[in-house]
Structures are given as structure tokens and as C-alpha cells.
């Protein structure tokens, strides 16, 4: 069936009506193929018309030219107990020609369950009038699976909520960032969120949704709290709910269980990313030896097409608890006592070796050469080689983050920052833009350093820096491995910061593929400086920057030897000895450029 638009009249409407249908089963799906091509071909929508309801329910829409191709539409109808029909409306503009067509209309799994001669066993329920045999987990779940309503008879209303008359006995958390919204019909933003509820399958029914548009920010959280429940046996309490996660920038929905009121509890289940335009049923089996509560947490994605819906939440085999959950006291950590220095005669411009009290020049601290017998002059410095195993940062610091954490009014949880990670801790969807294995061990258990782009916003930067390095030698260079994979990778820079300036030594931006890549940055002779890795966040969370196996190579400064230079060495003007192979190689090996003099 097609419409050929070749008239100049504006806003013509073509309407195609289906025959009437009496009812559908709870798993009913409608699919068809459509074609919508032309510069001003206009919009089309499929409406559900239910007997007794004046307001039509929009099931599907296309807004614009979608190219010269056939596309498939899949629409979840679910249980519709009353007679209904469909109306396919096509609105065409009057400026250019366009073609719209529909083909291969199919209904799947739309029949009610057939009657059964017997229905034995604890895991089955025999419907009263239809005599269908259904799974016992479908009983009292706010869905008429039997077709006669008998599976929803005699249910405890305190254990289920379809949000038609409010939140029931669920509550909004007061310690989250914002609240779930009760609504009916489509959400305010196109191409995200449900068009209808799950209970009635029409625009008349209510559901909860999480609004991802402004003023909401990435990773804002909305938490819904269940009533309290008595301890349950091994999986005898079952939580059922339906969720809707449709939109390019949908982020995450999580379910937690807690037995202490001032904690988040532990994760039972989560779903991440776009799950298409459909309501999805989820069943969770809950065990607890203590009274408990369920938390449903929605997290905002990186844009306004990230709405999440909730509907038809029910419990089976659970009993309500009349008391309250205990709290755990919060304690403050103690302060550390600074170590006392040994007896010494050092000046303020000298460093005191911790074991011996020996004095060395301050320029010898953090120069990649231990001058104290106990190597204390190199403690508190960046390590020469760092693989981040054993969750060790090797002296690398995030000064801005540490400054923020000192101010308790600032929440740093959602700050774009560097942190340790490993493949074993990733969500399944994170593998597309974060390393699954580290570079050191090539396993999921190995650790690396990464800037987590699921925090922050576009253009935010995260710096991690060395402590001040006193002095380096002429051939000093930093070697590291980087991983930059994902559709919205930002950039990685290596900077050198001294007291009065910061210079860029190396930069790389955009996706570099799903592998670790080696990088080498020449430092040479420098004094009193810091090396900084700066990650810049891309437009979304689909692009983490990671580094591993950072090595400072040949960075210890030159030593003036008491012995004369050998025949294989060259004596610099400042009395340093360097290999003759290093002469005239465009590198200031002597630190005074005498090895690069044209008079050699």
C-alpha cells in the first residue's frame, strides 16, 4: 500500500483504518515495514483507537524523510482487553513530491494462552475461567495473563503499584538529586521515553519517568524507595517491574537492596543504554536474613534523549515489615602524626636524610637518583616505573581533586577525574570505550589509570601530575602506553609545568583504535618542574582515556666524577663526562651545549 504525493495542496491527510480486533494477549507485538521518502514527504503516525476511550493513543511516529529504503517498525501492544482498531495517518506537505508506503504487516504472540487439561506443580497457576496454565511468577503482577483476570484476583494491594492513583506505598528519596515524575501519554521530548503506559497500553494510563532534559545534568540520580519487608528465605520474595529505556542518550537503571537505612546497599541488577521503544519485564529473586528495602535508581544520560520509565511494580511471596531499618554510625578518620626528623645540622635549603640525618642539596631530592642511604630523598616522589598494579598510583597526584575534597560542601563524585580501573570491573557496555585488559599483564585483572568520561561534561579536563621533579638529565624521556577508543574520545596531553609557565609537550585526540599504543615524550634537562597528564572529555561518556606502564627513562642528572674521562668519553666544559657517541647528535647531553659546539 503506498501514497504518491504529487499535488500542490498543503497539509493533505491520508488515513488508513484497520479492521476491528476484539482483544490481545499480554505478549502481543505488531510489526510492519514502511517507506517514507521525499524532500517534504511529511510525517506519519499510527494511532490506537480503543472502544470507550475518546483519546487516541499514538503508537508510532516518523517525522521526516528517511531515505530511499524500507525500514522496520516494531510496536509492543501488550494486553488489550477491549475492542480496538488502528489508524495510520499520513500528513504531506505541498512543496515537493514524496512517496510513503507500508508493507508486510504482522501480528505476533497476540493470542491468549490456550486452555489446558491439567496444570500441576507449584510453579504453575490454573486460570479460573479460561483454564489456561501459566507460570506462577505471573500471578499478581498487574498484568492479566489469563485473559479472565483470575491471576490478578485476591492480590494484596500493598504489594503492587501501577501508579494509576499515585505512588502507593513507594516514596521518593530525599537524598538524591531529583524525583521521578508521574505522567500519562508520551514524555515531553520526542524520540525518547514511552508513548503509553504498560498497565493499560494506552495514553490514559499512568507511569513514572525520569526526565533527562535541562536542568538535569549528566549522572544526576533519582531514587525510588520501596516499603520495608520482613526477612525472606532463599529467594521466596520476588520483585517484578517493567522498565522503558528508549533514547540515544539513555544511561542507567539500577536496583539495590539494603538492610541499613543510611546506606545505598548492594546492587541486585542494572541495565545500561538504549533498549529500544518497548516496556521490558524484569524479575528479581530476593533473599535476606534481615528486614530490607528495595531502591530503584535512575541515572541521567549525557543529553535530553535519555528518559527512563517505570510501571507495574509488584512483590510476590513478601510480607511488609512494620518497624524501621537500623542506621550505622559515621566516624571521622584520625589525623596522621608527621614523622620526626633525626638530629641534624642541615639548613632550610637542604634535605635531611631520614635515617642518618645526613644533609644533601635540595636539588637532589626527587631527581631519580637516591643520594641518601635509605633513599628517603626519593620517597614522596614519582616512581621511575609505574604499572599501577596493587592499585598503586606511584606518586601521581590530582591536586585540584584533593583541594576539592577538603571542602565538604563540594561533591566530587560526578567530577571528571583520573582513577584506577581494570577490565574485571567494567559494565558490559563499557568495553566499547574502556580497556578490557591492562597493558602490563594483558588480563582483565590488571590495573590501569583512566579518566572516566561517565562523569563531567563536554570540554571538562582532568589533570594528574607528578610531585615537583628537581632535576633531570639530558637524555630524559617519558614512555607510556595509552588507550583511546570510543565514538566520542576527547584528547590526551602531556604538559610540563614550571613555576611560571606550562608548555605542551605531546597531544593526541580522537579514537586511536581498540589497542594500547606506545608514546614517547622527550624531556631532556629540566629543573623544578612537574609532568602533567591532561585528559579532555569528549561530547559524551562513550570515550575514556587510559594510560599504563609510565616510565621515566635515563632521567637521573649527570654526575661530576672525581676520575678523569676515559678515552671513550668526552669531557664537557662543566667537567661532566659523556660518551663520545653522544657528540653532535642535536641533544644537549652536557647540559651546557658544549657537546654540540661547532668547534669540537
UniProtKB/TrEMBL annotation:
Disulphide bridges: 140-155, 366-381, 565-577, 572-590
CDD domains recorded: LDLa, MAM
Listed GO CC annotations: membrane
Domain MAM: 1-112, 159-320, 384-557
Residues annotated as signal peptide: none
Keyword set includes Disulfide bond: yes
UniProt key word Disulfide bond: yes
Keywords annotated in UniProt: Disulfide bond, Repeat
Protein name per the record: MALR1 protein
Record lineage: Eukaryota, Metazoa, Chordata, Craniata, Vertebrata
Amino acid at each position: 500500500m503506498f501514497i504518491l504525493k504529487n499535488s500542490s495542496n498543503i497539509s493533505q491527510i491520508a488515513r488508513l483504518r484497520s479492521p476491528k480486533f476484539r482483544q490481545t494477549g499480554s505478549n502481543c507485538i505488531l510489526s510492519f515495514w514502511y517507506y517514507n521518502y521525499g524532500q517534504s514527504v511529511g510525517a506519519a503516525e499510527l494511532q490506537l483507537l480503543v472502544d470507550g476511550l475518546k483519546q487516541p493513543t499514538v503508537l508510532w511516529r516518523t517525522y521526516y524523510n528517511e531515505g530511499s529504503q524500507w525500514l522496520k517498525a516494531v510496536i509492543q501492544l501488550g494486553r488489550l482487553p477491549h475492542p480496538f482498531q488502528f489508524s495510520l495517518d499520513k500528513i504531506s506537505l505541498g512543496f515537493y513530491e514524496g512517496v510513503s508506503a507500508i508493507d508486510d504487516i504482522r501480528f505476533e504472540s497476540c493470542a491468549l494462552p490456550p486452555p489446558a487439561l491439567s496444570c500441576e506443580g507449584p510453579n504453575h497457576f490454573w486460570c479460573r475461567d479460561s483454564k489456561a496454565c501459566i507460570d506462577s511468577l505471573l500471578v499478581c503482577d498487574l498484568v492479566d495473563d489469563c485473559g479472565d483476570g483470575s491471576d490478578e484476583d485476591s492480590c494484596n494491594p500493598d504489594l503492587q503499584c501501577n501508579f494509576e492513583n499515585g505512588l502507593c506505598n513507594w516514596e521518593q528519596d530525599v537524598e538524591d538529586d531529583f524525583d521521578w515524575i508521574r505522567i500519562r501519554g508520551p514524555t515531553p521530548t520526542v524520540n525518547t521515553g514511552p508513548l503509553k503506559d504498560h498497565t493499560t497500553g494506552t495514553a490514559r494510563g499512568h507511569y513514572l519517568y525520569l526526565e533527562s532534559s535541562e536542568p538535569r545534568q549528566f549522572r544526576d540520580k533519582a531514587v525510588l524507595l520501596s516499603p520495608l519487608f520482613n526477612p525472606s528465605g532463599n529467594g521466596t520474595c520476588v520483585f517484578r517491574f517493567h522498565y522503558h529505556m528508549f533514547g540515544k542518550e539513555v544511561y542507567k537503571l539500577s536496583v539495590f537492596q539494603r538492610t541499613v537505612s543510611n546506606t545505598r546497599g548492594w546492587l541486585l541488577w542494572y541495565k545500561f543504554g538504549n533498549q529500544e521503544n518497548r516496556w521490558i519485564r524484569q524479575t528479581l529473586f530476593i533473599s535476606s536474613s534481615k528486614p530490607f528495602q528495595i531502591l530503584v535508581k535512575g541515572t541521567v544520560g549525557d543529553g535530553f534523549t535519555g528518559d527512563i520509565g517505570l510501571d507495574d511494580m509488584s512483590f510476590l511471596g513478601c510480607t511488609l515489615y512494620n518497624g524501621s531499618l537500623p542506621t550505622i554510625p559515621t566516624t571521622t578518620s584520625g589525623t596522621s602524626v608527621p614523622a620526626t626528623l633525626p638530629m641534624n645540622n642541615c639548613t632550610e635549603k637542604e634535605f635531611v636524610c631520614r635515617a642518618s640525618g645526613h644533609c644533601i642539596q635540595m636539588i637532589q631530592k626527587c631527581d631519580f637518583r637516591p643520594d641518601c642511604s635509605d633513599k628517603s630523598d626519593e620517597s614522596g616522589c614519582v616512581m621511575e616505573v609505574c604499572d599501577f598494579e596493587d592499585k598503586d598510583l606511584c606518586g601521581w597526584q590530582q591536586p585540584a581533586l584533593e583541594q576539592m575534597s577538603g571542602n565538604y560542601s563540594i561533591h566530587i563524585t560526578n567530577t571528571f577525574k583520573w582513577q584506577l580501573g581494570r577490565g574485571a570491573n567494567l559494565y558490559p557496555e563499557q568495553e566499547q570505550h574502556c580497556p578490557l585488559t591492562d597493558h602490563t599483564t594483558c588480563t582483565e585483572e590488571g590495573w590501569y589509570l583512566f579518566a572516566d568520561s561517565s562523569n563531567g561534561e563536554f570540554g571538562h579536563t582532568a589533570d594528574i601530575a607528578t610531585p615537583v621533579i628537581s632535576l633531570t638529565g639530558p637524555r630524559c624521556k617519558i614512555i607510556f602506553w595509552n588507550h583511546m577508543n570510543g565514538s566520542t574520545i576527547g584528547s590526551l596531553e602531556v604538559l610540563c609545568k614550571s613555576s611560571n609557565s606550562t608548555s605542551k609537550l605531546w597531544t593526541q585526540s580522537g579514537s586511536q583504535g581498540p589497542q594500547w599504543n606506545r608514546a614517547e615524550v622527550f624531556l631532556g634537562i629540566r629543573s623544578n618542574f612537574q609532568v602533567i597528564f591532561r585528559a579532555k572529555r569528549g561530547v559524551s561518556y562513550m570515550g575514556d582515556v587510559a594510560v599504563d606502564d609510565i616510565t621515566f627513562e635515563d632521567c637521573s642528572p649527570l654526575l661530576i666524577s672525581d676520575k678523569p674521562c676515559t678515552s671513550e668519553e668526552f669531557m664537557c666544559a662543566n667537567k661532566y663526562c659523556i660518551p663520545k657517541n653522544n657528540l653532535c647528535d642535536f641533544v644537549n647531553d652536557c647540559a651546557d651545549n658544549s657537546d654540540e659546539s661547532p668547534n669540537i
